[in-house]
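SEQUENCE-TO-STRUCTURE ENTRY
===========================

Backbone structure tokens: a row of integers, each naming the local backbone shape at its residue.

Task: work out the structure tokens from the sequence, keeping to the layout shown below.
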Amino acid sequence: MGSITRGTTNPNRLRRCDRWIAGPQGWRLRRSGAPPVVVDLGYGASPITAVELHDRLRAVREDVHVVGIEIDPERVAAAKPLERDGLSFRRGGFEVPLDAGVRPTVVRAFNVLRQYAEDEVPAAWSLVQERLAPGGLLVDGTCDEIGRRAAWVAVDASGPVSLTLSLRMGGLERPSAVAERLPKALIHRNVPGEPVHAFLADLDHAWARSAPRASWGARQRFLAAVSEVRRSWPLLDGPARWRLGELTVDWAAVAPATAA
């Protein structure tokens, strides 16, 4: 279920999200009794992101099984030679077709829904939510072509729970540069009157006020800026993640103010 995407991808493009899944979300894999299943949904013209995801998550659970799912049969056929123990590919879409009785612990859908209309997002989320294992998570995200700017929404069985921004700090002019990579549920909401717009504006203002810290490097400047933002916004992580150019905010604080 779904539409064939443009399929653009690059090696190492999704490293920021992979690092987050293996880090703060790694407990979801570790607590699974059976070998956890992680889906790379809509991996695109190249299966490299699924291969990389498997490599990275094996450090968390050696028995993890990554399934690359694509709606384009030619892309699936091209990926088949790369199958190995713990990595497989199959055709499908948001219905997440797995073997009977198998439910995924994590479904990563990157640069997929951005090609849909905003009002199509809830139905796509709902389809995936129905397939998740107990305590499972859908990660709906978008990033630039080489993965230097990324943003993703974490969605569990109850609905969206958080928004994460992840930025390469070298050469960063202002944090709101990530706005053009917001997930489809938010990208059209970066306008005055919407919470996500206010959040990015506050982050930019804090970044500007932290300019004196730049003499110690962009990381120290970012840490100072996010520490300031934390006073007004419900951030769900701490300095260990901020040092990576990453911060996560409670979804309720940035959710769209009006219906699509």
About this structure: The chain has ten helices and eight strands. Strands lie at 37-41, 65-70, 87-91, 106-110, 137-143, 149-156, 159-167, 246-250. Residues 166 and 244 are 8 Å apart (CA to CA).
